[in-house]
Write a structure and sequence with these properties.
alpha+beta, PH-domain like, 2 helices
Amino acid sequence: MSELDGSSGRDPGVSGAHFQLYRIPAGSAVGWRLLGGNHRPIGRGAVSYPALPECLAAVKEIVDRLAELESVVTRAPLNRWEWRLRFAGGADLVVGAHPYDRRIRAVSAHLHFRSQAATARIDDAVLVAEARRGNRRIREPRMPPR
């Protein structure tokens, strides 16, 4: 197995993607997101759930019924594009990780979600974060001019 022969040593049926369950802050509702093998977010749940069992059941239902979900790609503010998945006529269940600059990229991202979600493992541990990354900015003290 090497880069030269094109084999990665990974089972071709396993994507490396996984569903991560989280709470922000501790004690709040449980949400989920799908992370790729590189740990970048691909998509997330459109709603949060009051407890872990409900969140796990929702993720399992989405994976089991992935083919039944309809895709919706719409314009977002600032000339961006977003994708969502829902059951026909129902509320949004899955939303893209972020808006996209082109419609074709939003369509491609939603197809990527579908392909990765089908084989992704579901982590049943809950990540608890005290704050979102954007709220944890630490200011470095300025050095006085010489």
